[in-house]
Amino acid sequence: MTVEQNVLQQHSQKHQQTLLNQLREVTGTTDVQLLQQALQVSNGDLAEAVAFLTEKNTKVPQQEEATYYQTAQMGNDRYISVGSQADTNVIDLTGDDKDDLQRAIALSLEESNRAFRETGITDEEQAISRVLEASIAENKASLIRTHTEVWSDSPNPYDRKRQDNCPVGLKNVGNTCWFSAVIQSLFNLLEFQRLVLHYSPPARVQDLPRNQKEHRNLPFMQELRNLFSLMVGSKRKYVDPSRAVEILKDAFKSSESQQQDVSEFTHKLLDWLEDAFQMKAEEEREGEKTKNPMVELFYGRFLAVGVLEGKKFENTEMFGQYPLQVNGFKDLHECLEAAMVEGEIESLHSAENSAKSGQEHWFTELPPVLTFELSRFEFNQALGRPEKIHNKLEFPPILYMDRYMDRNRDITRIKREEIRRLKEHLTVLQQRLERYLSYGSGPKRFPLADVLQYAMEFASSKPVCTSPVEDIDTAAPPGGTVAQLPPAPRQESHLPLSPPPPPPLYSALSDQGPSGSPEGSATQAQQRVPIHKPFTQSRVPPDLPMHPAPRHITEEELRVLEGCLHRWRSEVENDTRDLQGSISRIHRTIELMYSDKSMMQVPYRLHAVLVHEGQANAGHYWAYIYDPHHRCWMKYNDISVTKSSWEELVRDSFGGYRNASAYCLMYINDKKPFLIEEEFDKETGQMLSGLDKLPPDLKEYVKEDNQLFERELEEWKAQQEKLSLAATAAARDPEYMEQPSPTDDSKRLQEDTERAISRAATEQDHKSPEALLSAAIKLEYTRLLRFAQEDTPPERDYRLQHVIVYFIQNQAPKKILERTLLMQFADRNLEFDERCKSIMNVARAKLDLIKPEEINMEEYEMWHQDYRTFRETTIFLMLGLELFLKKSFVEALMYLIYAYQYNKELLSKGPYRGHTEELIAHYRRDCLLKLNEHAAALFETGEEPEVNTGLNIMNELVVPCIPLLLVDEVEEKDIVAVEDMRNRWCSYLGQEMGSNLQEKLTDFLPKLLDCSTEIKSFHDPPKLPSYSTLELCERFGRVMASVSRTPADGR
């Protein structure tokens, strides 16, 4: 066999085995013979193979068979999935017709090899192209859509400018969040980053690639280098990876659309990189055994030690990404323990011959970058579709791999046996404890200590000598007579079994008894019984017993019983504490089993966590990556890169919370710092950063892109300066203080001013205009101060009536108040009589005498701008609530959104700068929920116009607003509302619907499930009408009064 044939065969083996692993994971079928049969029948098509197995499983019950494999040849340096081998080396001892099966496998491999030799591309690689082409098509389609897209670029380039040395994000070019998550995780491995940036293609293929693989891999490597260089030195906040995706699309021709599987993409990405580096390595060391840096970085080896039908075997296998099952395990170590041991392995530890079969895996060589694939998807045989596993799975920031190493095989086996013995003992103790904590023989069980306590409380209750129903007369007295005293010797009343009859009309009998005599009246009065009315009486009568009690018990009986119950309860509590203490000690012993120094010599630190949120059919991906230099976690969510925390990572990655969980963990060897070490200049010893890290060709590439972006920034700045100059007008005082024409506001303000002047003139007769001005200002300030100090309901907000009330409540500086009041009395509309005219002139003269250093005009303008914003916020809120109450939710949303945003900005400066935040938050949230419900109802109709209308509502209104609800994560109700909206749409996954609807849903869900809190695009605020102060106060008062009558969880 030639070298080329050997390589081709190895590639086909790996391709075949990858398909087997995927098919096993999706369908849950463990029978290898059946899996291979399905692949053969379907001619390698994964979807048809799943359908074949699903149909077969509905007819024939699946048999649980433990199938173990011999492993690949020792010299095979290619990737082989864990627990499997290259197909040509499989020796299947579980089937009956071995020859037929081997022929089928050989035929399948021959067909795959022939297709590979003709095109250089495997069937699996062709399947990947479908997704890549769909992503590019989606990106192109987004350029011609008229409605707002979630990930459209901001027109302002300053919004897209990189801040300092913040990491660069990647633009989602259409269902490519999986691409961003994987690329960012690899890019932040600085050793991997250096390998890619400094890669140069082999000289012999630079001009003319010799085969299809080189034609595909080398251009992709160049685009990956370009992308990495932009991520290093770009001045942009995020960069566009479309060209790298375009290369992948051009390499494989297909037209089908689905979201890419991340694990499969990572496999293929590393394969392509490995091939590219292999070509370079072979050229540099021609004739020598070459080392591939990708293999050195990501691949390791393990030893498979097993017994098959009494015969022992040992084989070495190579692995890349290590798959782990999640279902049934609570943490990563449990997953690893289960993956490392298969079947019944007692025979491995003894020299006796046994028919039992089993195998163990022991790592002989771990890669510097250790990647675990967490299998969070399983195939639901009943429903015929894959489902996501949302179970919680914990993983540590530091993972010690010593217990899984071959060199520690003997000590690990001893410890595993000790743990097994401790767990058996633990199970017995937990069963005993459960009998104490769940005591009883019926369906309801209680802690035994509580049962004894209740018995003691019952025995110690005050005895009663009557039945609980004897002293209750449930019949109405005949003839309207009052109830009679019961013959029982005790004056005690009990709860009636039914409401008592209405009391007699005492007023009609107050003058005479039944016989008309006064004596009858007195006797009747003595016989009246106080009747307890359970539905009208506010408290239970004092003589009504609260608990059942024994009828008869002697002091001696009570003393003996109390002594026994006390003693038994004490014994039970002591036994319970002893059991709980023993259980805790065993748990602690198990936890510390591998804590000695000898088992903590192989530390791996968590580098990246790739997270998926959604269901099996659709969802969103992002990554948490550790920054060792700043010692913090960073969240990479497409274009958004933000500082995070271990607590946020735990919440989103462990599972069991929302629909988000980790599907891939990337650990790095903590004793190999070169993986994350920065590069230093060999001459100066200075750390390289930015463009200095790049080779000359990439440095020029990034400089050109940065120059283009700087030109865009300059053009935008010049455009904005022109607009600013065009909009600049002469500075004038606030419109609510002075207006050139006598509008309603100025008339009202003028009337208030004249009233203050008249009162001042009455109190200060024959005084100078200056004294009158001072007195009038004092009177006006006193009036407004009284308003500011009054506690009023929201519908009567005095802040809207006068700016001074707003200033007083927010403790504006005295100089601001004085100038604002002077401006009120300097109004030219006061010129109607000589007295007001003279006071106006004095006020204007005082304004002219104020020196620039006496008052900060910027601060003065800032306070008046805040008041203008307060009035605008009020109008937004008023119109939004009016439309909401009219159920015009589409129109109401933008008013409520901007009311909340403006109000939040005001409240950041002080608690009385704006309106109640909880109120606006409630109606903003409720409006979004109602729009979501309306859009979902339109989608459910299945009619094309209604479906498009519903999705437009979601894309243009609801989805862009979701980051606003998540940005702070302080309002739990907002987070719950977002989850409700997402769950409503995710519930459609798996339901029967047309292909067109399914395609629309698959396209829409990633946008809805995007967890980024960055506002990527948004509507401009609605244009506000102008209102006089009187009209604004009246309308706002009416709508707030209506709201106060409406239940709101925000109030």
Automatic annotation (TrEMBL):
<keyword id="KW-0677">Repeat</keyword>
<keyword id="KW-0175">Coiled coil</keyword>
<comment type="similarity">
    <text>Belongs to the peptidase C19 family.</text>
</comment>
<feature type="region of interest" description="Disordered">
    <location>
        <begin position="465"/>
        <end position="527"/>
    </location>
</feature>
<keyword id="KW-1017">Isopeptide bond</keyword>
<dbReference type="InterPro" id="IPR054109">
    <property type="entry name" value="UBA_8"/>
</dbReference>
<dbReference type="GO" id="GO:0006508">
    <property type="term" value="P:proteolysis"/>
</dbReference>
<dbReference type="InterPro" id="IPR050164">
    <property type="entry name" value="Peptidase_C19"/>
</dbReference>
<protein>
    <recommendedName>
        <fullName>Ubiquitin carboxyl-terminal hydrolase 25</fullName>
        <ecNumber>3.4.19.12</ecNumber>
    </recommendedName>
</protein>
<dbReference type="GO" id="GO:0005829">
    <property type="term" value="C:cytosol"/>
</dbReference>
<dbReference type="InterPro" id="IPR028889">
    <property type="entry name" value="USP"/>
</dbReference>
<feature type="domain" description="USP">
    <location>
        <begin position="168"/>
        <end position="670"/>
    </location>
</feature>
<keyword id="KW-0378">Hydrolase</keyword>
<keyword id="KW-0788">Thiol protease</keyword>
<dbReference type="InterPro" id="IPR003903">
    <property type="entry name" value="UIM_dom"/>
</dbReference>
<dbReference type="InterPro" id="IPR038765">
    <property type="entry name" value="Papain-like_cys_pep_sf"/>
</dbReference>
<feature type="compositionally biased region" description="Polar residues">
    <location>
        <begin position="512"/>
        <end position="527"/>
    </location>
</feature>
<dbReference type="Pfam" id="PF21909">
    <property type="entry name" value="USP_UIM_N"/>
</dbReference>
<dbReference type="InterPro" id="IPR054108">
    <property type="entry name" value="USP25/28_UIM"/>
</dbReference>
<keyword id="KW-0597">Phosphoprotein</keyword>
<dbReference type="GO" id="GO:0005634">
    <property type="term" value="C:nucleus"/>
</dbReference>
<dbReference type="GO" id="GO:0016579">
    <property type="term" value="P:protein deubiquitination"/>
</dbReference>
<feature type="coiled-coil region">
    <location>
        <begin position="699"/>
        <end position="726"/>
    </location>
</feature>
<keyword id="KW-0832">Ubl conjugation</keyword>
<dbReference type="Pfam" id="PF00443">
    <property type="entry name" value="UCH"/>
</dbReference>
<keyword id="KW-0645">Protease</keyword>
<comment type="subunit">
    <text>Homotetramer, inhibited form. Homodimer, active form. Interacts with ACTA1 (via its C-terminus); the interaction occurs for all isoforms but is strongest for isoform USP25m in muscle differentiating cells. Interacts (isoform USP25m only) with MYBPC1; the interaction prevents proteasomal degradation of MYBPC1. Interacts (isoform USP25m only) with FLNC (via filament repeats 17-18, 20-21 and 24). Interacts with GAPDH. Interacts with SUMO3; the interaction sumoylates efficiently USP25. Interacts with SUMO2; the interaction sumoylates efficiently USP25.</text>
</comment>
<dbReference type="InterPro" id="IPR009060">
    <property type="entry name" value="UBA-like_sf"/>
</dbReference>
<keyword id="KW-0539">Nucleus</keyword>
<feature type="compositionally biased region" description="Basic and acidic residues">
    <location>
        <begin position="744"/>
        <end position="765"/>
    </location>
</feature>
<keyword id="KW-0963">Cytoplasm</keyword>
<dbReference type="Pfam" id="PF22566">
    <property type="entry name" value="UBA_8"/>
</dbReference>
<keyword id="KW-0833">Ubl conjugation pathway</keyword>
<comment type="function">
    <text>The muscle-specific isoform (USP25m) may have a role in the regulation of muscular differentiation and function.</text>
</comment>
<dbReference type="GO" id="GO:0004843">
    <property type="term" value="F:cysteine-type deubiquitinase activity"/>
</dbReference>
<dbReference type="InterPro" id="IPR018200">
    <property type="entry name" value="USP_CS"/>
</dbReference>
<dbReference type="InterPro" id="IPR001394">
    <property type="entry name" value="Peptidase_C19_UCH"/>
</dbReference>
<feature type="region of interest" description="Disordered">
    <location>
        <begin position="729"/>
        <end position="765"/>
    </location>
</feature>
